[in-house]
Design brief:
seven-stranded mixed β-sheet; 12 helices; 39% helix; alpha+beta; binds nicotinamide-adenine-dinucleotide; Hypothetical Oxidoreductase Yiak, Chain: A, domain 1; Ribosomal Protein S8, Chain: A, domain 1
């Protein structure tokens, strides 16, 4: 597909304002809409196209059909000096998560380590946003969430576990923190949605069908996934030979941390549909951990040593043909440098969704130069 036909670029400020206005018009209080739009724009700025503005319509639809609430009443279920358990009461995942991570950071600053869990929540966007909060405040951050059932356990074809990102952020003396932010599946649903939007096949090995064969038709995969007929493979892939069982175990740990310390749903209960196919709340769980390096050593010495470690890795002997050894967070940092200049690419499906939301919410102040039909069929299955 020709990229120049596929994308229209919007500047970061306009895109942020539009997303915030959509959230406000959908009933999200202004301060919370600011948080939701900020999480999405961070994804777009970092080049993570699957989880930024491309997901705005998903949240809008979930609010519209009353599957999740626009107002987030965050309540404390249990608290100790180092820990807190919060109930998001089916509100916005981004709002509950940002507040939860800040509490974990505040506790870490007092106790060396802090942890927050959230139950009764919804999709929180990129996990990287929350560990970035920690690194900006000179803490190590870790977080994870469960999600709709997608990953099959090793030797199964049934989607049981969410794509369950297990995400880490560490402050460094580089221009950016070390942020390892990814799913525990080889790929994640959002990327297949992007492929479906672009009309591209999924890579062989990302997905197995009911018969244990590799499925590659990305549009079909999205449809089948909702019916639990296809599954993503865990990190390491199918079987044990390339370590699929290790990815399966990491995804399981994230599920345990997200759901078993609280009353959050787990595994296939996170589908967002009841037995009759009616939309029901997801009741997802998340966890957030902050560690203050200053509890162990001097912060600048820590950042310098972490930076040295990354310099050694990046300076390792290269594979023949390779031009660069990356460290985690680097590609996203580079993407942001470029996107500050180019703006954010908006795909045709996202353009259609923007026009639909603009029309329904009467956001007449925006004049998008999108040459698409807002009523054309959507392939995402939200
Ligand atoms: N909320 C949810 O339910 C949910 C579920 C799954 C994923 N996600 C989000 O989706 C996003 C994308 O996830 P993904 O699994 O597609 O990520 P991905 O496979 O694109 O990996 C991205 C991560 O790998 C690092 N990376 C990339 N190339 C590298 C290299 N050569 N060397 C070292 N590090 C490298 C990046 O810096 C980044 O940290 C993440 O932000 C994640 O939090 C959210």
């Amino acid at each position: 597909m020709n990229d120049s036909n596929e994308y229209v670029y919007l500047d970061i400020k306009t895109l942020f304002n539009f997303m915030k206005d959509v959230f406000i018009a959908a009933g999200v209080p202004e301060a919370d809409a600011d948080i939701c739009a900020d999480v999405l724009i961070e994804s777009d700025k970092r080049g993570i196209d699957s989880h930024g503005c491309a997901r705005l319509y998903m949240y809008y639809m979930r609010i519209k059909r009353k599957q999740q609430l626009p107002v987030t009443k965050l309540t404390i279920v249990k608290e100790t000096p180092g820990t807190i358990r919060l109930n998001a009461n089916n509100g916005m995942g981004q709002v509950a998560s940002k507040k939860a991570m800040q509490i974990a950071i505040d506790k870490a600053k007092k106790n060396g380590i802090g942890m927050a869990i959230v139950e009764n929540s919804n999709h929180f966007g990129i996990a990287g946003y929350y560990v970035l909060m920690a690194t900006k405040q000179d803490c190590i951050g870790m977080c994870g969430t469960n999600a709709r059932p997608s990953i099959a356990p090793t030797w199964s074809v049934e989607p049981m576990l969410g794509t369950n990102p297990f995400t880490f952020g560490v402050p460094t003396d580089w221009d950016f923190p070390w942020i390892a932010d990814h799913a525990t599946s080889i790929t994640q649903r959002g990327k297949i949605e992007t492929y479906a939007r672009l009309g591209k096949d999924a890579v062989k090995g990302w997905v197995i069908d009911e018969n244990g064969n590799a499925a590659t038709d990305s549009k079909q995969i999205i449809t089948d996934m909702l019916k639990l007929k296809t599954a993503l493979t865990p990190l390491g892939g199918i079987g044990e030979e390339l370590g699929g069982h290790k990815g399966y175990n990491y995804a399981t740990f994230v599920e345990i941390m997200s759901a078993c310390l609280s009353q959050a749903n787990m595994l296939q209960a996170c589908l967002g549909l009841d037995k009759n196919g009616n939309f029901v709340p997801y009741n997802l769980g998340h966890f957030f951990i902050a560690i203050d390096p200053a509890a162990f050593c001097e912060i600048d010495a820590f950042k310098k040593k972490t930076g040295d470690l990354l310099r050694q890795l990046a300076g390792a002997k290269k594979q023949p043909g390779a031009s660069h050894i990356y460290v985690a967070g680097e590609k996203e940092y580079l993407a942001y440098q470029e996107r500050k200049r180019t703006g954010i690419p908006i795909s045709r499906v996202t353009q259609r969704q923007f026009l639909k939301m603009q029309r329904e919410l009467n956001l007449v102040q925006y004049d998008f130069a999108f040459d698409v039909d807002p009523d054309e069929e959507d392939v995402t299955g939200w």
